[in-house]
Amino acid sequence: MKDIQLTHTGVFHLERLEDLIYERYNKEFNIEDNESLRELVRFASRLQDTDIQREFLLFFLNCGAEMQAALREAEEVDNDNYIRRS
Predict the structure, then answer these.
(1) Beta-strand runs (E) in the chain
(2) What tens digit of pLDDT does each residue of 60-83 get?
(3) Beta-carbon neighbour count of residue 71 at 10 Å?
(4) Domain of life here (predicted)?
(5) What is the distance between the alpha carbons of residues 8 and 24, in angstroms, rounded to a whole number?
(6) How far apart are CA 46 and CA 48, in angstroms?
(7) CB–CB of 82/26 below 8 Å?
(8) To 10 degrees, the CA torsion angle through 71, 46, 81, 74?
(9) Is the pLDDT of residue 45 over 60?
(10) Looking at residues 33-46, what average pLDDT do you find?
(11) Cα end-to-end span (Å), the chain
(12) For the chain, give me the number of helices (H) and strands (E)?
């Protein structure tokens, strides 16, 4: 997930994802820090929470094709996550 380029909508959904995780799991991330962003993706992709998975999907759908491909291949995304199977 090197050189991550996000749209404004992608950032919006990442911020919502970050807020949901903090509200429900009291875990903080900083999406402006690359390593923290990786941890957020890693954490979110493993959760079975429907609301978090919806925001994760909206984030994914608002990434460009290259970023979507990188996320599908990224070690940070859980192997059982739906974006790996699509």
Answers:
(1) none
(2) 989 888 888 888 887 888 878 877
(3) 21
(4) Bacteria
(5) 24
(6) 7
(7) no
(8) 20
(9) yes
(10) 90
(11) 18
(12) 5, 0
